[in-house]
Amino acid sequence: MATLRDIRRRVSAVRDIQQITKAMKMVAAARLRRAQERILLARPYAHKMEEVLCRLAGHTAPESHPLLSRKSTGRHLLVLITSDKGLCGSFNHNVLRRGWEFMKGAAAKGEQTYWVAVGRKAKEFLRARGSSPQAEYIHIFGNLSYQHASRIGQDLLRLHDDLDLGEVLLLYNEFRSGGQHKVTWGKLLPIEPAMAESCPIPVDYLYEPSAGQILRELLPKYVEVQIYHALMESAAAEQAARMAAMEMAQKNAGEMIHSLTLLYNKVRQERITKELLEVVAGAEALR
Predict the structure, then answer these.
(1) Which of 30, 174, 258, 276 is buried deepest, with most CB atoms within 10 A?
(2) Residue of 120, 166, 152, 117 lying closest to 229 (CA atoms)
(3) CATH number for the domain including 38?
(4) Model-level pTM?
(5) 1 is a domain residue
(6) Is residue 287 part of a domain?
(7) 51, 194 in Cβ contact below 8 A?
């Protein structure tokens, strides 16, 4: 049985861990508030831009721009967006598992999947399984800006042309609330035209200088905006997941301290009882 000193050391160690998890939860909560403010400001712009581009795609011939053309090449580019750090529950696991299942399903159909890793966890996951990403971006969430999305978007457009890709997909965690996030698929390329049922009132636009020139300028910008939106969603969801994980860790530490305290009192009582019996036995022997 553990000695009283060992139990006291364990209680002290668990209390230290509890303090660390409490501090990490507070830091995650502060970062979550900032990330939530940014995502609430960015969502309307990203959704409206997607709506306009999908409407434009419905009025434009797919052959007019390579980002609109739908090709059946059997080559997919999957952008995995994870975090750089752990201690956030199943946040990374869910994305990586879904991405790997997609790759196995595509391979069963004779199709090929290329990877882009955003976040250190995605890079380590792919390399541990012998897959080399076409590009990797790590340590960008500490100071996330639009320049990161612009660089990723330009690289994706280059890969879209060089690899003759049929589609480019985003896989990330979408932020729902402080305690909820959802693994989300986003089809980045090609840009799909809006369905008739989603646009009951047909809308057309007046172009100046021309539809082709506007699309050439607007389509790459659309790609960057959607990537930036996905990065901010993932950043906010990561802080929410880390806050929930640290809260659970703090709760578990409290339960462990309670159990160890009960064990400490039990061992101490047994030792006191044993010493009393020895005193009584010694007194009886003297008689």
Answers:
(1) 174
(2) 152
(3) 3.40.1380.10
(4) 0.82
(5) no
(6) no
(7) yes
